[in-house]
Amino acid sequence: MTAESVIGDIEPTLRRPTDELGPRAQRTVVRILAATRDVFLTQGYGGTSIDDIAQRAGVSRASFYTYFPTKRDALLALGNDATAGAGALVDELGRIEPPVEFATLEAWIGAYLAFLDEYGGFALAWGHAAYEDDELRVAGTRGHLRLCRRLGDALESLRGAPVGDATTQGLLLFSMLERGWAQARLYEGAIDMGQLRRDATDVLARMVGTPCAREHR
For residue 206, what are the contacts with CB-CB under 8 A and spacing of at least 6? Predict the structure, then answer.
């Protein structure tokens, strides 16, 4: 699928020291983005510095600037990757054939929570950055709501009938999963992730008219 940027029409700037990035340079970019994602998760967007990212990535500050002019550009690059991944999962949900089994939905919820393990830091950082940057907020709202609509359409396809507003329902499901995941990470050890997955699947099952877990017992 074509990646649709969650930041709308704003594209990240990736500096290229040469016409094409070689394998070593590509590995460095991947390390920088992975470090950016991890630091955003623990320190938030405003609390993250270029030095923090470089230290986590094991590169120099100069190496960071070789590829990214600012941490905003690193955020935008993560946004493109995150949106492509979320969009692929939305498409997978929409391709589920009836009858929709609870176990199938639980597998999808598990895959989305695993996706958040990788990109949840971006989601949290994006929320912080949007409050500080009006351009990011306005453009990001458009991109995110388009993705919410796609998720709502997938729910409607599983249900076989429209119920309410598709964009709102997609927003609610995304919000539940992202907030639940973030809180579970914050309360590490106090929340059972397996139970979170099952309970989240119960909510999804009710949204699409599939018997929930308790009705399977």
Answer: 212
